Amino acid sequence: MSQTVAFVGVGKMGANMARRLKDCGYNITAVLDVNTQAAADLAAELGCTACTRLADVTAAADVIFTVVTNDAAMRGIFLGSGDSLLNSASGKVFVNCATLSPAIHREVYAAAAAVGAHSLEACMASSISHAREGKLYLMLAGDEATYQRVQTMIEQMSMNRRFVGGPGSAAEVKALVNMVMNINTAGLAEGLGLAAALGHDLNMIREVFSQTGANSRVLETDSADMVAREHDCWFSAEHAAKDSGIAAEVSKTVGLHLPLNDATKAQYEKMVALGLGGLDKSGIAELTFKGRHA
């Protein structure tokens, strides 16, 4: 509990991770977000400082968590000229939790090592409620010695975790997880959409799916929302498009063509183009049910 902690990126996931660690007795010293009002509100709630400079966040804590939106944001906070999290960062530990490309995680790892700091991937396969309750599933990568420095903290944030390997490897595994999840979601939406068009009772179809080879995790989490058109956002279509894109880029590095991932990516990109990117990933059903948005 002696380690001080700060957060860069305090949207729904980052804010609830900070709340969880505060509940566990950690001293949260600073937060920063491009949404300065969100950072100020969370800082008031947690009794810490809302910083406006990245270097000030690093100076305020031993362990800095980052939860940013994409590779460009990650590059901006670590590798930008001038203000950077890596200013005077020797000895600091950065725990990077967003779903990003393996390449940017490797860049940040090397840049941190060059200034005597430590970078650890902690890719999340969980929802907002899991972050608040300390029930995240985390895939970790980097140096095992760095993981051991923050292991107690990580265990208090997560129900399950897996150390995967060297820099970039957790991001690769997370890309696989989200690629398969997105494909399953798109497939389920097509199955339910076709069933509806054929006039079948969708509650019956969902029950049959659950007892057969059509079963999947997304059947449990998304099928009722697809039928009811309740797409409150837990994991947005925009993020699904981004993550399927990461998998597509990774596949190119090993010379593989992934046609199902390409088709799924195109569907989520269509949602974004139609202005539906803020819907939950279950909103892909709006493209497959007759008489809906598409």
Q: Could you give a short description of this structure?
A:
The protein has 294 residues and is of the alpha/beta class.
Topology, pairings included?
Elements: E1 4-8, H1 12-23, E2 27-32, H2 36-46, E3 49-50, H3 54-60, E4 63-66, H4 71-79, E5 93-96, H5 102-114, E6 118-124, H6 128-133, E7 136-141, H7 144-149, H8 151-157, E8 158-165, H9 169-197, H10 202-210, H11 217-228, H12 237-253, H13 259-273
Parallel strand pairs: 1-2, 1-4, 2-3, 4-5, 5-6, 7-8
Antiparallel strand pairs: 6-7
Identify the notable features of this structure and list them briefly.
elongated, 294 residues, single chain, N-(1-d-carboxylethyl)-l-norvaline Dehydrogenase, domain 2, eight-stranded mixed β-sheet
